[in-house]
Amino acid sequence: MFERFTKDARAVVEGAVGYSERAGAEAVDEEHMFLALLDREGSRGSFALASLGAAERRDSVERALAETRRRGGLSRAETEALSGLGIDVSEIVSRVEEAHGAGALEAGRRGGAGRRSGRRPFTQGAKETLTQSLRLALARQDRHIGDEHLLMALTVRPGVLAEVLADHGVTYETVTRVLYGDGEAKAG
Asked: Which CATH number fits domain 2-71+121-180: 2.60.40.770, 3.20.20.370, 1.10.1780.10, 1.10.645.10?
């Protein structure tokens, strides 16, 4: 499938690996892919993000993602559901961090020595995002998978990242409207 990726889409995947390594993560996940997308310039994906204002709100997006990691990856809906059962996630996070240090609930982080060699694995969610990007490209009858397809795939996959993106105005609908729709300026 990687041979169908454009130069920009390949750069996003390679950038995601870099983000994963710098974060000390066990594997490349969807958040790493999104951060790498934010780094792009002059691509269709970067055009959509800039048009939607996400590029200029990068700090806000990163803070929201960091807070989610701090909660152990729980989405707002999951946190609210637990609250309905009388479980205060903020209190649990505080107690765990008091006992084990800040960031103790962050999923996918590792301690100790770095990776020995070989490729960095992708999480199941990241693999599904790549597969979804192929499906989206095929549905649009595009010959290649661009970074815009990666962005659209990230917005349709349920979970924390899509929730944070939606909070910042980046949804499948807004991305497709910017890139393909309604007689407005289109990315070229």
From this structure: 1.10.1780.10
